[in-house]
Each structure stands twice: as structure tokens, then as C-alpha cells.
Design goal:
- The complex is a heterodimer of chains A (294) and B (220).
- Chain A is mainly α.
- Helix content of chain A is 65%, strand content 1%.
- The longest helix of chain A is centred in the N-terminal third of the chain and has 24 residues.
- The radius of gyration of chain A is 19 Å and the shape is globular.
- The model of chain A has no long low-confidence stretch (mean pLDDT 96).
- With 220 residues, chain B is of the alpha+beta class.
- Chain B folds into two domains: 130 residues, 2-Layer Sandwich (60s Ribosomal Protein L30, Chain: A), CATH 3.30.1330; 72 residues, ACT domain (Alpha-Beta Plaits), CATH 3.30.70.260.
- The chains are: A mainly alpha (294), B alpha+beta (220).
Chain lengths: 294, 220
């Protein structure tokens, strides 16, 4: 069993296999399952993600009314004009937003690694799909590669906003996505690790400050930025850019930053954007209460 | 290693909006339900830390009650769990606690009926994963690295021997085991960590063991 990114990359490169293959083999061994069972379960997760993106692109709205409809706006804009940041980036953004809008509306999603950060992995997958034309099997592999990197973060640091802030959720999700994009685009296992490192480095310190405690503001747009961060970092890694700080040390830094993060900024809705005048106003409106306390 | 499967990371498939506060919370409620073994008449739910501060926004209350109703994380009936509980005549009470706990997402769930009750403390550690840290006042010291099974049994001779011989028969090795009771001759608790996976047939067999009342797998 691999315990860190270095071991994961070493396993893949010494055997001449992809990261996704390392993850599939480990899952078969740990859960005593056949390849068909393991791959089949991941295919069902892929179906859920695809459905969530579709639903989000049709337009959904959350019960609170705080989020919804932005995925539709972005897609419409893309049809009318060429986006400045390029079609793949904006497509990834719209699909990440779509997923998290569905999540906020209490729809069915697949946590990757969490519900609040569920947009980054499928958002990027269904966007780069149009460029790379992967087979269904390669799309399933994308999820195993994402899962392999998430597995290391979850065991060595945290994927919980309450424990480690948004860097642990959207940061991890974006890093996972970056690593998977690299594999799908034909990069090496170590390039996947570089992409993960570059992404996570740029998400360090991100706090978890949901308005009214809802997984809506700013979570939906943080997934948009997580997805774009992933695409850019993947391109950098594929270009041969490396991270001066190794991936495992970036993960460790993320963990330590999370531990020293104030409780007000770890999913308690007491600091950051949640505590802004507008944040408080929205909170009062959502719960139908008058503004009090503090 | 707390997370052992890729599906702990890519998954679970769930009803939004929060894996810690919805899916993990539902799993804590469902663990209580499984250990209690039947639908309770009442539930007292104490929320701590981030759970206490944000449970309304995340639907943590709805999710825990959904779990108590035996719904899985992807069961769309979760969203109407509070109304369903009311219709079924289950009295549900929530308590927002100020006390500081080791983990930010902690819930204490007490459920019961005329014949008995059960108290469980669970933590939601992220990505929909939950851990049971206390049961009926007994602190559970599980490494989380191995499959584990909880057995509630009558405090009588032969109960432990019966369980260990069933495990031995299936060539299951015990890595760690704790036995505790509150009062001599009353309810007791066995917590066993094993090296091999426990399938449902073994769990069924354990249920038939001498003086065994309830069996639940708490860590896969």
C-alpha cells in the first residue's frame, strides 16, 4: 500500500504502469474484489457525476436562493463569445459550477473528495474530454488517478473543511484533478505529482467561511477557481515545470496550516465572508431571523 | 490509515450539500440505528463544534434523523426525514452544545424506546467518513486501521468464548479486543479489531453466539 505521493509515483514508474492502475490494483487487493467489480463501481460514480453536470447545465436553484443558474449563464456566454481565458477553461468552470449548484440544491452528487468540493474533478473531466476524446475506460481511470492522490491527502493531512479549511477540500480536489488531467493528456506519473503540488501550493491557506453555514457562498465559485487552477497547473506540469517543494511536503504544509487555522475560519460560519455585513444579512434572510449577536 | 478505499475519496454518492455534515452525519445516525437494532421511539441529539454552528444550513439534523431511519447517504428520502420521523411518532430533540470536543464535527446520539436505549458519540472526519468514538459511555479505542466489530451482549460466562471460537473457525485473527461492562451481570460490550474482512455470513453467525444481543460492523 502506498503511503505518500513519492511511493505512489515510484510504484507506477518502477512497474511502468499508470497511477490509475496502481490505485485499481490496490483497491482489488484491499477489498478482495475483482477488477470488474472495482471498475464497475467507479463507472457508476462517473454516471452520477455526468448526470449532475447535465442537471446543473439545465439550471437549478438552491432552497435558500443564494446559488443557482450561473452554470447556464457561463455556457450561454461561451456560445455567444469566445471566452478570454479559452474554451476549455471556461467549460471546466461552468461544469464545476453546475455540479456544486446541484449539490447546493440537495441533488445527488458524488463526493470528490467531499460534497463541498465535488465540482473540481468532474468539471475538469467533462471539459478536457472534448479536447482529448478519451474512451469511457480512460474517463474511469481519471477518477482512479484523482482518487489515488486524494487518498494520500486524506490519510496524511485532511479533506475536511472543519478540520483544515477550504484548502483541505477545494485545494485537495483541485490538486487531484490536476494530477488526473496530466495522466489523461499522456503525462508521466511524476508530472501528475508536480501538477498536484503546483495546484495545492496555490490553494494553501484558503479558509472555510460559508455564509449562513451553507455549502453555497463562496463554495460554488471556489470550485470554479479550483477547476481553473487544476487546468493551468496541469499544463505547466506537462510543459516540464516542476515544483521546488515536493508534493508530499506541500501536503504536509497544508495539514499544518489547517491545524493552526482559527476555528472561526473552519466551517463554523463565524469568520471571513460569513461574518461580512452582507454575509450576515444573507444569513438573517435565509433563516428568517432578525440580526442579533455580535 | 483511516481511509482505505478509493471509494472513500471518490464517493460516496450522496444527497447534497455537505459530505461531513450530511453524509457523515447520516452515517453516525445509521450506526446508532444499526446498533440499537430497531426503530426507536425517541432521539436526543447533541451537536458540537461546527455541527452545532452550521447544522441548519447543512441539513445535519435532517441527515442524522435520516440515518436513524436507516437511510443510506444516497437515499433521497433523507430530505424529508424530519417529517417522516414525526409521522412515525418518533420524538426528536436537538441540543446545540457549546462544549469543546476533540473533533470539530461531533454528535452524541441517544435513541431509545420502552425496552431500552443506546448512546453513541460519532465524529465525521471528512468526505463522508464517520467514526464511532464512544458507545454507552464506553470509550472506543480503535486504530481505524483494521475492520472492527462491536457486540452488545449479556454479561455471562461463555459469551466471549463463543464469539472468539466463531472467528477462529473462519480463520479470522483478532488484532485488538476490549471487553467492558457497567454493572456485573448486565449489558456488556465487546469491541474486536480483526485482520481479515468480515462478511455478512460471519456477522449473522456472531448474532447467534451465546448471550449476544447485537452485532455491528463499525469499520470496514
Amino acid at each position: 500500500m502506498f503511503r505518500n505521493v513519492a511511493e505512489l509515483v515510484e510504484l507506477a514508474e518502477s512497474e511502468g504502469i499508470q497511477i490509475s492502475e496502481v490505485m485499481i490494483r490496490q483497491e482489488m487487493e484491499v477489498k478482495e474484489k475483482t477488477r470488474e467489480e472495482v471498475v464497475g463501481q467507479m463507472e457508476r460514480n462517473l454516471d452520477v457525476m455526468e448526470k449532475a453536470v447535465e442537471d446543473g447545465l439545465k439550471g437549478v436553484r438552491s432552497h435558500s436562493g443564494l446559488t443557482g443558474g450561473d452554470a447556464v449563464l457561463i455556457q450561454k456566454y461561451m456560445q455567444e463569445k469566445e471566452p478570454l481565458s479559452g474554451p476549455i477553461l471556461m467549460d471546466a468552470v461552468s461544469k464545476a459550477v453546475a455540479t456544486n449548484e446541484v449539490n447546493a440544491a440537495m441533488g445527488t452528487i458524488c463526493a470528490t473528495p467531499t460534497a463541498g468540493s465535488a465540482g473540481c474533478v468532474p468539471g475538469t473531466l467533462f471539459a478536457v474530454k472534448n479536447k482529448l476524446n478519451p474512451t469511457r475506460e480512460q474517463m474511469v481511470r481519471y477518477l482512479f488517478t484523482s482518487g489515488a492522490f486524494g487518498f494520500v491527502v486524506a490519510n496524511n493531512a485532511s479533506i475536511s473543511g472543519a478540520a483544515g479549511g477550504c484548502q483541505a477540500e477545494v485545494g485537495s480536489a483541485a490538486g487531484m484533478a490536476a494530477a488526473a488531467i496530466v495522466e489523461m493528456a499522456g503525462g508521466t506519473p511524476s508530472q501528475s505529482a508536480e501538477a498536484m503540488a503546483i495546484t495545492l501550493k496555490n490553494m494553501l491557506g484558503l479558509v472555510c467561511d460559508p455564509v449562513a453555514g451553507l455549502v453555497e457562498v463562496p463554495c460554488v465559485k471556489r470550485n470554479a477557481m479550483g477547476a481553473s487552477n487544476a487546468v493551468v497547473a496541469a499544463d505547466m506540469a506537462l510543459a516540464g515545470v516542476t515544483s521546488r517543494i515536493p508534493c508530499d511536503e506541500v501536503i504536509d504544509a497544508m495539514y499544518k496550516i489547517g491545524q493552526t487555522m482559527p476555528v472561526a475560519l473552519r466551517e463554523t460560519a463565524q469568520g471571513g465572508l460569513a461574518a461580512t455585513p452582507t454575509g450576515r444579512e444573507l444569513e438573517a434572510k435565509v433563516y428568517g431571523i432578525s440580526l442579533k449577536k455580535e | 490509515m483511516k481511509y482505505k478505499s478509493v471509494f472513500d475519496i471518490i464517493g460516496p454518492v450522496m444527497i447534497g450539500p455537505s459530505s461531513s455534515h450530511t453524509a457523515g452525519a447520516a452515517r453516525i445516525g445509521r450506526a446508532a440505528r444499526n446498533l440499537f437494532g430497531r426503530e426507536p421511539k425517541w432521539a436526543d441529539i447533541h451537536l458540537y463544534g461546527s455541527f452545532a454552528k452550521t447544522y441548519k444550513g447543512h441539513g445535519t439534523d435532517v441527515a442524522i434523523v435520516g440515518g436513524i431511519l436507516d437511510y443510506d447517504t444516497y437515499d433521497t428520502r433523507i430530505s424529508s426525514a424530519l417529517e417522516t420521523a414525526k409521522q412515525k411518532g418518533i420524538r426528536v430533540k436537538f441540543h446545540e452544545e457549546e462544549a469543546h470536543t476533540d473533533h470539530p464535527n461531533t454528535a452524541k446520539v441517544r435513541i431509545g424506546d420502552d425496552d431500552g436505549d443506546l448512546e453513541l458519540v460519532g465524529i465525521s472526519i471528512g468526505g463522508g467518513m464517520a467514526e464511532i468514538v464512544e458507545l454507552n459511555g464506553f470509550e472506543l479505542r480503535l486504530s481505524g486501521n483494521h475492520p472492527a466489530v462491536l457486540l452488545i451482549h449479556n454479561d455471562r460466562y461463555g459469551a466471549i468464548a463463543s464469539v472468539t471460537s466463531i472467528l477462529a473457525k473462519h480463520e479470522i485473527n483478532i488484532g485488538h479486543m476490549e471487553v467492558s461492562r457497567k454493572e456485573e451481570g448486565k449489558r456488556a460490550l465487546m469491541v474486536i479489531e480483526v485482520d481479515q474482512n468480515l462478511d455478512d455470513t460471519i456477522l449473522k453467525e456472531l448474532e447467534q453466539g451465546d448471550h449476544i444481543l447485537q452485532v455491528a460492523k463499525i469499520v470496514d
